[in-house]
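Hi R.,

As promised on Friday, here is the backbone we talked about, encoded as structure tokens. Could you run it through your design pipeline when you get a chance and send me back a sequence?
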């Protein structure tokens, strides 16, 4: 994102300072988990200047700074407050959607449960004694005999 001119900086500051946003940044070489995304890319806008944007983390109050050169964009987030008269309805709807999403995410696991293979007859090679030669290397003759026994059992 290019550095905004003075007029754009004023307009952005007037609208976004004090609001919670999610930052969209250019590729970085960190492999973030979903839970970490909120820690690094969501916050309340404190200050917008010609260098970039300062955010405060919503719970830890730690500061983050994003330069214009690494920003792709940012989006205002909906902030839910308990004193909102629609709070309970919004939370009920949110919880319902999360349950549906969770159910859809794990539904395929139930359908594709693999069956354990059934052994009809114990292989005879399990009962063989240990070889006299306890070398850590493979005994080619023993391996050959084992292969022949497998072919005989099939």
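Update: got your reply. Pasting your designed sequence below so it's all in one thread:
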């Amino acid at each position: 994102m290019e550095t905004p001119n003075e007029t754009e900086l004023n307009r952005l500051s007037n609208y976004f300072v004090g609001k919670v946003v999610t930052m969209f940044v250019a590729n970085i070489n960190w492999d973030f988990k979903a839970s970490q995304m909120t820690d690094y890319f969501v916050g309340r806008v404190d200050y917008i200047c010609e260098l970039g944007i300062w955010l405060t983390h919503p719970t830890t109050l730690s500061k983050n700074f994003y330069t214009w050169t690494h920003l792709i964009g940012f989006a205002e987030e909906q902030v839910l407050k308990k004193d909102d008269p629609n709070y309970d309805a919004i939370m009920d709807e949110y919880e319902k959607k999360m349950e549906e999403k969770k159910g859809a995410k794990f539904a395929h696991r139930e359908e594709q449960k693999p069956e354990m293979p059934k052994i009809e007859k114990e292989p005879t090679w399990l009962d063989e004694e240990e070889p006299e030669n306890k070398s850590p290397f493979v005994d080619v003759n023993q391996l050959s005999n084992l292969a022949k026994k497998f072919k005989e059992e099939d």
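One thing I noticed while checking it: The mean pLDDT is 80.

Thanks again,
M.
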